[in-house]
Design goal:
alpha+beta, four-stranded antiparallel β-sheet, 6 helices, 4 strands, 16% strand
Length: 229
């Protein structure tokens, strides 16, 4: 949810820039030191007793969280800036929950819910990557690879661009075959003509070699071709 209020920041030349405030809940995940015997428990107590500016510490039913109104150009940036503040100013890690329970679901039409889902997934992913020993550059390299722009369809792997590997590929002029090329390729589908027969080494067709066909005899006539008796 975006608040209607806005924060005013003064930049160079005494210009005023309105920075929107974003409301969200930032919870402490399983890696946060919430028990007295946990390592760095003192950092958790500092956040609990003196939370960051714009945040209120809440704890009920065993769920500890910060309810915040934090400035940023968008919700994701505001969440990231607050997490940075908690890590650098308080020394606390493990704030990786934004109140989303069903992370496998997705509803981009609900912008607030969708942004919190993306933020929580990123916080959980980076926190667990850190637990496994991955550094910032490792995670950034993974994100760059995962978000690499896809190739256009005609530049997909296994297919070359027209004119690169095959200069005749997709050339409409190749579809136009003149009559001379057709004769060079071989005999016509209807059979060899005189020129084709000469090229193939066979005899030229003559009227003597052609079979003679007769029509069926008329009733009462000589089948040999004579006149009736």
């Amino acid at each position: 949810m975006t608040d209607s209020d806005s924060d005013v920041a003064h930049g160079e030349g005494e210009t005023e820039t309105e920075i929107p405030l974003w409301s969200f809940r930032l919870g402490f995940g399983p890696f946060a030191p919430r028990r007295p015997n946990d390592a760095n428990y003192a950092a958790y107590m500092r956040v609990k007793t003196r939370p960051p500016l714009g945040c209120t510490f809440r704890e009920d039913y065993g769920f500890a969280r910060l309810e915040c109104r934090w400035p940023g150009p968008d919700r994701l940036a505001a969440v990231g800036r607050l997490v940075r503040e908690i890590r650098t100013a308080f020394g606390l890690v493990g704030t990786d929950e934004l109140g989303i329970e069903r992370l496998g679901e997705w509803a981009p039409d609900d912008r607030e819910w969708a942004e919190c889902t993306v933020g929580q997934l990123l916080l959980m992913g980076t926190g667990r990557a850190e637990q496994l020993g991955y550094g910032l550059e490792d995670v950034l390299a993974f994100v760059r690879d995962a978000m690499a722009p896809p190739r256009p369809p005609r530049q997909a792997a296994g297919r070359s661009r027209p004119g690169e590997d095959d200069p005749k590929a997709d050339d409409p002029e190749d579809d136009d075959v003149d009559e001379d090329d057709a004769d060079e390729d071989g005999p016509d589908e209807d059979g060899p003509d005189e020129d084709d027969a000469a090229e193939l080494g066979g005899p030229e067709p003559s009227s003597e070699s052609r079979p003679e066909f007769r029509t069926a005899p008329v009733s009462g006539s000589d089948p040999i071709g004579g006149t009736p008796a």
